[in-house]
Description:
Shape: globular
Order of helices and strands: EEEHHEEEE
Strand order of the largest sheet: 1-2-3
Distance between the termini: 22 Å
Structural class: alpha+beta
Mean pLDDT: 84
Amino acid sequence: MGLNDPASHAFRGPTPRARVMFGPPSHVYVYLSYGMHHCVNLVCSPDGEASAVLLRGGQVIAGHDDARRRRGNVPENRLACGPGNMGSALGANLEESGDPVSLIGNGAVPAQGWRLEPALETAEFRQGTRVGISRNTDAPWRWWIPQDPTVSGPRT
């Protein structure tokens, strides 16, 4: 919803911080939260339309040693649980905001940059309201896989 969502960084238009969210799609938008957590978003709307999806957590499937070094001695399911922990596990930084994201599959791996691999199977998911914001809190724009141990709470 970008310009129509008061909780979005794009709400005030294409500021230097948020201009990446205005496209083109398939790029990362990285921002610093609370002055210490690098949060990663995927820009997803057509060029000129502001929107991005915050990555709130996931399972580390490659680069495990790097993620463990960055996150320290935490339980496996907490390596990338929550947006700040996910950014840390990924080694995200502000200089990467705007970098392209490549969709990989069938053995094709880009030489550098951000890579996403589609899930091999579909998953049941739940939808609810966002957390950690103070505006537009009723928007049902949070999705998660039930019983996935890497999902940050709450799960309602």
